[in-house]
Amino acid sequence: MRARVLYATLTGNNEDVADVIIAEFERLGVQTIKEDISDVEALDLNPTTQDILVTVVYTFDLGTLADEAIDFYEDLPDVDLQGVTYGVAGSGDVYYGKDYGTAVDILEEQFSKTAGIHGASGVKVNLRPDAKATDELQKFTQALVQKASNN
Asked: PROSITE patterns this protein is in (predicted)?
């Protein structure tokens, strides 16, 4: 099984989130690639190159999507993700109230427009992954692998 983890980060927090997910994939024997989302063209995604696709992005100004992920987001509905299990996670800051982690919700909504398979509910991490968030991210990753295994 193969997974691809795409991330965007300003502070390093989302790379930490991605690393927790990747460590769990590797513990489960899943071959994993980690890439900066700004280096990936959504339209170049091929469903035969990964079984699982995870995006890890931060929420920017007033609950908007990170600039690095906008092109990916805009192209996503036109991407063939038939048979690909997807999941979304991201760090944020609860200080921002209703805008906390909205990038996770925005990307999950966009993924729902593809033929991909929703593998697990999105995970929002307050700042850096602590022990509780790490556990939640590990369970998220396990659910993705389980869902992909059943397809």
From this structure: FLAVODOXIN_LIKE (PS50902)
